[in-house]
Amino acid sequence: MLQRRRAIPGTWVRFGVVLLVVALSVGLIGGGALAAKKRVVWQVHWSDFQIEGIYKGDKLVTRGLKQWVEEYQKSHPDVEIVLQTVPMEEYLNKLMVAQAAGTGPDIISVLNTWGPQLVNDGVLDRVPGDLASDVKNNFIPVAVEGAGVDGGIWGIPFEVGNYALVYNKKHLQEAGFSGPPKTWDELVDMGAKLTRRKKDGTVERYGFAFLAGWESAVVHPYLGLLWSLGGEYLAPDFKRAAFNSPEGVKALEAELALFKKGATDVSASVWEFPQGRVSMMIMASWYESSLKQAFGADYEATVGVAPVPAINGRSVNAAYSWWMSVNAQSKVKKEAWDFVRWFTAQPLPDGTTRMGTYQAENIGSIPPRKGDLSGHPEQLNDLYTKVFVQELAHARHEPNVLQGAEIKSVLWHEIVEAWHGRKSPQQALDDAARQINQILKEFYG
Amino acid sequence: MALVSKQARQTVTGYLFLAPALIFYAIFLVIPVAMSVYISFTNWNMLGPLERARRVGFSHYVYLLTADEMFAASLKNTVIYALGTVFVGMAVALGIALLINQLRASALWRFLIFAPVVTPAIAVGRIWSGIYHPSGGYLNELLRLVGLPPQQWLSSAELALPSIMITAIWAGVGATVIVFIAGLRNVPAQYYDAARIDGASPWHEFWYVTLPMLRPTVLFLSVTGLIGAWQVFDLVYSMAIGGTESGTTPARAVMVVALYLYMTAFRNLRAGRATAGALILFVIIFVITLVLLRVLRRGGLEAYE
């Protein structure tokens, strides 16, 4: 018994020594190897299949981000690209918290609305000259406009978003319409005729639904109408709001006509389009795969896409963009930019880039580089995306203004007040302008 | 001398025992609170370094209390939400507790009534969003059956907050019921016996015996309930702001303080203003708790002494 008691500490001591030796040698050997490998953290907002790739059975049919990263690492064994996935709605929060703690990612996906703040607070590193020239020369104008803050380029645009009218072909045919509406008045008229009600007055199927639920969803389509009518969102020097003009009121009244004529109401939701409960909606380009999945074999026979009906003879499309930028606080800036260059700017033999291929084939969104736009006809000229790509020709990028998200939120809340009939269009826009002017005064004097 | 030395030794030993707790509180409570107070006087947005943030004095406090319409709306909505969910919830819970207390298989009933409490708020929000759905939800189907017009429960500016409150009461009533049942079982039987000998009706028994004896329980539930209700976030976020099918409820109609703080800090990049709002919320909760403690302090057996 006594011997056993003595034996236990002895065993533990020996075990500890062995562990220590193993740990030290692993630390020395492994640590040496790890120290040579530069670790570049890239925080992305993409989901599982966008990261892991799309498989049919065991066969990889569409590359995910992971496979691109693996390819890079093969040719750059000294670099490790670590993908950190964060849901889109939490992306900025996580970035802010990490940045405050000094642990921000090396490569950041930037939504243009956040751009000016990130530039102002020194979060973003200046884009190297060759890449900035590449953006200016090889990207579509709306994307170049989108990546600019104070005259500089602050990221490589990898996605540009805009809007179109998505409609249910079968619903339109059933109601005797030969095609989608071309003018806003036609949209209102057709929307009202397409709406089906039950005996008690509840809506069974909406003729039209607005995209809603977050600031861009509500404000972007409104900006399209406002710009089409010749109005302005903000003054060019960002010192005051400009949307509470007669054009701005007319644009909001045009939206309200859909409510007043019974084409839609505040319960109408674009997310019910796949269930056949909505006939027409103003939607963004990223909704394609959800619709394909929802309608399955019926997709082509059901889904139609057309430009947003013109309000004033011409249609202007509000656009937004995402950029790939490098953290100014990163300790591996060179490696990070090298990877960004390889992924977004180094052309493949067919003139496309890796990022463009990834965006077009996997994400299903519109890559803003000219070579990528023409290099993926199968994906970008299809039933859904074609119209969005065409509409980019007369798209206008939302302004990159400090507190852009807050300003848009104010306008969003006031537009929704008008949708609910709680405020007249003029009152809602004046209230929004008053609050926004206060924000602009704080930041632009 | 020896006595003083012994006392000093005891004091030191006492503080040594307290030290881990004190250090813990300093790191996780005192320092963050002090930092929050400091941040509330700056224009920090969490992106740049705090030391570079502009100091703005009391301007966030002044703005929030005098000019910020959304903060004012959020305070009003939170008061309505807190008072409604806590006191209506308590009344409902007391009724259920009295019923369950007299039923057989009360453990089964307690389990059933408690089930929603352990369901995550986001799931509760999702389920109730379905129940409230304007065309396919059970609630409107029910209204239709009894010949009443269907309602836009979550999309209507007038109904959205009450609808969320009903969900909150449903989700939280179980915990309140359990506490009430415990309170009810602590009322000594002789009080009821005495009341009955004096000819008290069941109503008199409830009003003059049960309710006064439950005062400590009511105090506990009011204080904890109100503190919780003041901080409501997930249910409103999932049902009306970020998670509804349409998401078109006017924000002003459903904005509560915690949601306002979240939006202000993380969406509008105003950590300084959000922190000032959080401190205002803290003062409000503190004052209300003090008032409640004062009003309901005496209760139970103590009230009879």
Proportion of helical residues of chain B: over 70%
Rg of chain A computed from alpha carbons, rounded to a whole number of angstroms = 26 Å
Unreliable spans of chain A: 1-9, 26-34
Quote the average pLDDT of chain A.
91
Described by the principal axes of the CA atoms, the overall outline of chain A is globular
Low-pLDDT segments of chain B: none
Distance between the termini of chain A: 84 Å
Q: Could you give the count of β-strands of chain B?
A: 0
Average pLDDT taken over every residue of chain B: 89
Give the percentage of residues in beta strands of chain A: 15-25%
Number of helices of chain A: 20
Please state the CA-atom Rg of chain B, rounded to the nearest Å: 24 Å
Main sheet attributes: strand count, strand direction, barrel closure of chain B = none
Largest sheet of chain A: 6 strands, mixed
- Structural class of chain B, please? mainly alpha
By secondary-structure content and strand pairing, the structural class of chain A works out as alpha+beta
Quaternary organization: heterodimer
What is the 3D shape of chain B? flat
Number of strands of chain A: 15
Q: Proportion of β residues of chain B?
A: under 5%
- Helical content of chain A stands at 40-55%
